[in-house]
Amino acid sequence: MVYPPPESVVALCVWPVSRLLTTTRASGTAAPLESVSPGLDASILISAFIVSVIGGLGSVAGAAIGAVVIALFNTAGVLWAPSWEPAFIYLAMIAVLALRPWGLLGTAER
Q1: Is the entire prediction scored with pTM above 0.70?
Q2: From CA 57, how far away is CA 104, in angstroms rounded?
C-alpha cells in the first residue's frame, strides 16, 4: 500500500481548519455596523473625495497614502476633540492643499 507523503497529510488537515477559522472570523467582522438608510452614502462619498484630493487626483498610490492620512487625522480627532472629530479630515485637506495644491502624489498641470 502506498501512503501519501506526510506533507500532503498535514495540508489535508490544515486546510479545512484554516477555512473554518477564516469563515468564522469573516462572518464576525463582515456584520454591518449600521443599517442601510437614505443618506448613508453621503459621508462615504465625502471621505472618498477628500482621500482622492489629498492623494492627488489620478494617483492610486496617492489615494492609499491619502486614506492613511485621513485615518490618522480621524483617529486624532476622536482622541483629542471628539466633538470636533468631523472637522479634522477637512483640516487635513486644507493643510495639504495649502502646501501642495495638486495633492501629495499628484502632478502639477500647466
Answers
A1: no
A2: 9
